[in-house]
Amino acid sequence: MSEYMIALDAMGGDNAPQATCAGAVEALRENSGIRIRLYGREDVIKANLGDYSDVASRLDIIHTTEEISMEDAPMLAVRRKTDSSLVRAAMDVREGTAQALVSAGSTGAVMACGILRIGRIQGVERPALGVLYPGVEKTFLILDSGANVDCQPKYLSEFGLMGAAFMSSVTGISDPEVRLLNNGAEETKGSKLYKEAHQMMKEQKAYRFTGNIESRDVPFGKCDVVVCDGFDGNILIKLTEGIASAMFGLLKQSLMATTAGKIGGMLIKPSLKGFKKHFDSEEVGGAPLLGVSAPVVKAHGSSHATAIKNAVFQAFNMIKGDVCGKIAQGMEKITASSAEAEERMEETK
Amino acid sequence: MSEYMIALDAMGGDNAPQATCAGAVEALRENSGIRIRLYGREDVIKANLGDYSDVASRLDIIHTTEEISMEDAPMLAVRRKTDSSLVRAAMDVREGTAQALVSAGSTGAVMACGILRIGRIQGVERPALGVLYPGVEKTFLILDSGANVDCQPKYLSEFGLMGAAFMSSVTGISDPEVRLLNNGAEETKGSKLYKEAHQMMKEQKAYRFTGNIESRDVPFGKCDVVVCDGFDGNILIKLTEGIASAMFGLLKQSLMATTAGKIGGMLIKPSLKGFKKHFDSEEVGGAPLLGVSAPVVKAHGSSHATAIKNAVFQAFNMIKGDVCGKIAQGMEKITASSAEAEERMEETK
Predict the structure, then answer these.
(1) Interface size between A and B, measured as CB pairs under 8 A
(2) pTM of the full predicted structure?
(3) Which of A54, B146, B210, B322 has the most CB atoms lying inside 10 A of its own CB?
(4) For B154-174, what is the mean pLDDT?
(5) CA-nearest residue of chain A to B276?
């Protein structure tokens, strides 16, 4: 089995470096096809690794002296802090010493690193951050989840391509179904941005677009990719968290109001655990940054070891499934077909 | 006690005219300060009223020969179908024979009637449709809920004014707290539209603006009015419905998976009813169309008698609280302060 080298920012995230070190060791133990480079202060990393002799041959530690904090201005920090754990990891990915980047650090800094240090795939205008959403029927990708709050229609069409490439590579779905978030099913629905995006998505031939999806249907997981701008993606994800939390609170309150409710509540506790697990971000793995020329996974800031391990596995699957190659090929198709469309426009003039 | 005349479109809604007729009679029985005019086919209305002799002195039937259906193009239908129940009701409100309009018919047609037949309040650029959202702490208004998908910053600032006027009139809150939906708490957050709207809302002095609210906090009801464009308002409302429905489904599934869950589920059934009631639109009453010169309430298309009754009560409270007068006064303040701001801009040039 071929080995893939994953660059892991040991210093990023609320629980770093304990969670990143423990997650790295877990990932190596569970998947022998993975090699990991941990970037950060060598002494701190070593103090947190515990006994890792069984996987030591596949784990390198790269000593770095700086860190990018949540308070740093992302673009500036990524430009100036050249010996930070995040930037050093990204530079190694750019140079090919590692094939993918994983970090639980600041979202802005990870994005800036992807764009400035690793670089965009040719033709891609805006890299976007995907989030896996646990739908009732299946888990699907929301793209963009918050990176690009002001979008043009062509960005949304690109998000469709990148999302389809990710889902086919990582989950193995042969022809992922892409839909556009909208306030109605008909193609005449929506704001100017979404109406124009719908037309562009309908005309392209690089991925399977099956029309609009209304917010009401989003939680059910009726497609593989939901495309929207970053402002609306943020609403989808944060409102879901808010409602789930509000509903658990109200449910508890309703149950505590009566004796039967209290007894019933105790009996259903184990069932509720399975129910809660459905909404657990630890299980999912991390947000892929799509549109840059190597796989980048942004793990949640509050990630514990399991979430870091799952983020590493996701990066592994992205390398293995050649997500970036698929996006590059798709971009060529999209560019070719929009050139054709422009030619037709010229002829009819 | 003074009596207010409410014009009720008897033919609008999925359950019309049974629900509208029954709702009208219920409203009259419960509130002796109300008079109702029912618009529609006289024979059909009479057949659905049952025995209403106890309230007959406060109920008029206005015979009309046309109806506006869900298939009609709203603007066109409102212009052409001059003897439809909805247009006749709106014309009487314009002429002052009635003080408010209630309809469970097509949202587009009710909006068009408000704008074309009743007319906007001076200075208001875009009337908007509010929806009352049952937050955990309190019920609040989302404005706009879907009428205006493409907005300019000044429309959002107007929505703040109209929402505050509604909440103070109808719920009696003395100085309602207005917040702007956004993807972060800081005023530099958001898309271009929301950033500019934030600045305008901060500068005006017609209502109390207390900053941004993130989607995650929306379900908790931490303010009285949430301002957003109609596209995002639609997401807030429809996604909430979708998640509530998905969560009930998953909860049921989790409970049915084990014997303890099944027994517990039976015990908590009464508690769940109270919980479900929290999300029940029947209780709420209808969506106010704000910015037109008389109170207009759009009841839900699937309204039964109780929902119609509550929509009538809401219209009654809007007349009594002089929502439209408050909006008109606030618009003067907003117009004056933006004229001042423009003058300052000129002086500094």
Answers:
(1) 174
(2) 0.90
(3) B146
(4) 93
(5) A251
